[in-house]
Amino acid sequence: MIIDVHNVTWTQGKHTLLNGINWSIRPGEHWALLGLNGSGKTTLLNMITGYLWPTTGTISVLGERYGEVDLREMRKSIGWVSSSLQEKLYGTDRTQYVVISGKHATIGLYDHLTEQDNARAEELMKQLGCFHLWDREYRTCSQGEKQKLLIARALMANPRVLILDEPCNGLDLFSRERLLDSIRGLALGKEMPTLIYVTHHTEEILPVFGHTLLLRRGQAVQSGLTSEILTAPVLSGFFESGVIVERHGERVYVRPAED
Q1: C-alpha 123: how far from chain center
Q2: Per-residue pLDDT tens for 77-94?
Q3: Nearest to residue 21, comparing CAs of 1, 2, 47?
Q4: What pTM value is reported for the model?
Q5: Res. 112: pLDDT tops 80
Q6: Would you list the DSSP string of 157-178?
Q7: pLDDT at position 108 over 80
Q8: Which pLDDT tens digit goes with each residue over 33-68?
Q9: Rounded to 5 degrees, what angle do the CA atoms 222, 223, 228 make?
Q10: CA angle 206–210–213, rounded 5-degree value
Q11: Distances (CA, A) of 13 to 65, 219, 248
Q12: Cα separations (Å) of 89 from 169, 171, 198?
């Protein structure tokens, strides 16, 4: 298993934020994690990356069971792209330096640059369609451009798992579609890491994410093939309200059912 979460519960005081979560990701699978705000998505991600410890249950990543492995080493195999990281980076850094800093997960560059580092950064920026930003100051880039750079930064360390945590948050329609096109190309590439795409918008779940986990109030409501999950009966139960599912191309859009 790439990821194996077994009967995981996490309590904080009197509050149970995750309750009996079971989730398995096999090699070759890309997953979407769908949940509304407050559903426990970030808590679950912090469990998978070893920043939080389950109250009960077990977690294994890349065949290594947490509690029996050096988490600092394990985290080197897991990339996590979140918009909150943008605030921590130096705005005056050149874009290629932001990307290269992902090699050692540092904020800023502290090591001597090699030709291989520059070549890898160039390759990743071309792959994600942001090479035209080379040598620009990071702060001059748009929100969507910054997200592409953060994905390239995460890939610099050659992770085996890449978590994309609501990467389209705050993007306008056109920026969102350009970023999703880059993610689609990334998922279809050779020797790509296992992707986990976190969102609360069904229309962002691309066909390349063949499996979906539904998370609500800290519970895994349902998981399985995306084609079987993104249906009106399943989503109406998940949202606890009737919804109409409309398919445009290979994307799924949801709206409330009329009274």
Answers
A1: 21
A2: 999 998 777 777 888 899
A3: 47
A4: 0.93
A5: no
A6: T--SEEEEESTTTT--HHHHHH
A7: no
A8: 999 988 999 999 999 999 999 999 999 999 999 999
A9: 95
A10: 95
A11: 26, 18, 44
A12: 18, 19, 22
